[in-house]
Amino acid sequence: MEKQKVLINGERLKQTVEAFADFGRTEKNGVTRLALSEMDIKVRDHFKNVCEELGMTVKWDDMGSMYATLEGVDNDKPPVVIGSHLDSVEKGGRFDGVLGVLTGLEVVRTLVENNIRPQIPVVVANITNEEGARFEPSLMASGVMSGRFDKGAMLRSTDKNGVTFAKALKESGYEGSKENRLTEAEAFLELHIEQGPVLENESIDIGVVECVVGMCCYEIEVTGESNHAGTTPMPMRKDSLFAANNLINEIREKMSELDSELVYTIGRMNVNPNIHSVIPNKVVFTLEARHKEAAVISQVEDIIQGLTETDAKEKCDVTVTKLWDRDTVWFHDKLVDSLEESCKTLGCSYKRMASGAGHDAQFIATYLPAAMVFVPSVNGKSHAEDELTSWEDCERGVNVVLQTVLDLTAD
Questions:
Q1: Most buried among 48, 277, 371, 408, by the most CB within 10 A?
Q2: What pLDDT does residue 1 have?
Q3: How far is CA 296 from CA 215, 285, 289, in A?
Q4: Does domain 214-326 have CATH number 3.30.70.360?
Q5: 258: which DSSP letter?
Q6: Average pLDDT in the 261-269 region?
């Protein structure tokens, strides 16, 4: 059988996405399914039942991540793993995360109904607490698996009601064995909605993801002097907010001269004392920047660290503190090439691109071969109830993954 003639059932995929969205569906057709909540436990139970009906065995590890395995001809060899996450943010969408898990489910269904027995096992994975919406940080379980996060610290993480992750995990019934963790794989493949506007804007079917971009995050503190807003002449002021505005303009001017793919954000700003009749004496704001090339991030850091210690015009002191950073994670070359070939086989338009957002695959890629596929997001929206990816785009994306799985598991 020629591989291009083996395709998924698009209508079944649509029905499956909608069925999973019923677990936490909101009034505006979104989803609220926080990690290890009642709805998350119910959707896990449903996922387990559906997989077992296909003849798969389902296990879960010590962080609650689930692995449903379809046996292959040689089960002593590392599997091909397809997965993402089933948890959502508060009032999130129907596609974020879950589409990646259901990609694996639909691939297995297609193999089974076409009587295709893979040479090596195929595993569908649901990685716990990717979002970090209930228990911080995000990418929690994949962070523990990859050694990025300390398990003990993660177990102590609490939600807004003071419930620890450890308690929620134990009560969920999905606290498994460390021996079940994902430790080896021929490949880890994650399909995800883009969560950005690029593919739709360029009318491209598929994003073949080369990397998750590196980033740096800084906090900039500007210190002035409070005084009466009505009686202090302008030349005699030390206005920290005006000084911060000067810095922001300087940052934008210098950053705009760097690479066009650089993105940077001032996402948090605190002004003290934040009273309309008082000159601000302190402003603290964050600045994060993201780019795939380490050299560009280095240029960004030179700009930030080179900000003047004193704003001469406003006579305010400036302190720059680095909060954290991360290196770009590049996906496995051969897997990226294989996904590109699958796009060509199916006649899909595609582009190689970087992911600006974090995904479980980025941590898993640090110790296993991994790659990602993006499908377009309508209006670039995600983490919102009106998040949408067309059913045609969902189907195309899953078929791309299917073709690569067929290649990886063939004789």
A1: 371
A2: 36
A3: 10, 22, 10
A4: yes
A5: S
A6: 96
**pLDDT tens, position by position, 169-200:** 999 999 999 999 999 999 999 999 999 999 99
Q: 9: which residues sit within 8 A by CB, 6+ positions away?
A: 106, 109, 110
Q: What's the token pair of residue 204?
A: 């491209």
- Residue 311 banded pLDDT, cuts 50, 70, 90: low
- What is the topology classification, in CATH, of domain 3-212+328-408? Aminopeptidase (3.40.630)
Q: Show me where the domains of the chain are located.
A: 3-212+328-408, 214-326
Q: CA 232, CA 245: separation in Å to the nearest integer? A: 20
Q: How far apart are CA 222 and CA 196, in angstroms?
A: 33
Q: How far apart are CA 225 and CA 301, in angstroms?
A: 28
Residue of 354, 350, 348 lying closest to 331 (CA atoms): 354
Task: Give me the pLDDT at residue 310, please.
Answer: 67
Q: For residue 96, which of 24, 169, 171 has the smallest C-alpha distance?
A: 24
Residues 86 and 98: beta-carbon distance below 8 Å: yes
Give the whole-angstrom CA distance, residue 331 versus residue 187. Answer: 11
**CB 336: neighbour CB atoms within 10 A?**
20
- Both tokens of residue 302? 């030179």
Give the integer Cα–Cα distance in Å for 238 and 223: 8
Give the pLDDT of residue 29.
97
Calpha distance 30→85 (Å, rounded)? 16
Q: How open is the CA angle 48-129-38, to the nearest 5 degrees? A: 60
